[in-house]
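> Could you send the DUF541 domain-containing protein prediction when you get a chance?

Sure thing. Input:
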Amino acid sequence: MQRNFLLASILGLSAMVASTPTFAEPVREHRIVNLQAETSRDVQNDEMQATLYTELNNTNPTTLARDTAQIVNKAMDLAKAYPSVKVSSGTQSTYPIYSDKNKLTGWRGRAEIQLKTSDFKAGSELIAQLQSNMQLEAVNFSVSAQQRLKVENELLTDITKIFRERASLLQNAWGASKYELVEMNITSSNDEPRPYPMMMRMAKAEASDAVPAQAVQSGNSKVRVQANGSIQLQ
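Output:
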């Protein structure tokens, strides 16, 4: 009898638990919107880079290496007269030359030097002098790291203002009372002009055939700052 009463009590309690209503959690409305913005500025290029090289042939690799080194050393000595121009060694290579019958006929050596300067007049004069023994491969102009950082810092304020204005427009368009910033990533880039074309001298110039210093126009580069992020409308 006692056992039957205990069983009935358990069944009754189970029924009460089963009949207790359950309440689902309210669905939260996120309303997250992704945004992007961009701003840019044209900046005058204030740095020049140039590559000059010598390329020689010889049947004796030792003689070839000596002649190549003499030309590069002479170029380095000439550059000492232009302290505002930074000069560094570039790539150097030596490789064999074969005939149509796959027979070794000689060696070819190539050596480069790199120039970098913000003094365009000095850079042009040095390039002209170096072309008496070397050939000019390319001249490039770009925005220096210091100038680019200065402009990017100024554009950070602009991109933030643009992003906030777009967020406010969306807030009003959706009839939201306010918005909160969820995340924002800022990146920068710059579009530099193509290498400045200059005529290469394919033969060693004589003293009376000196190359005149060429006037150059550095042009502009476009510095860009982009912002990508998301906001939550409330």
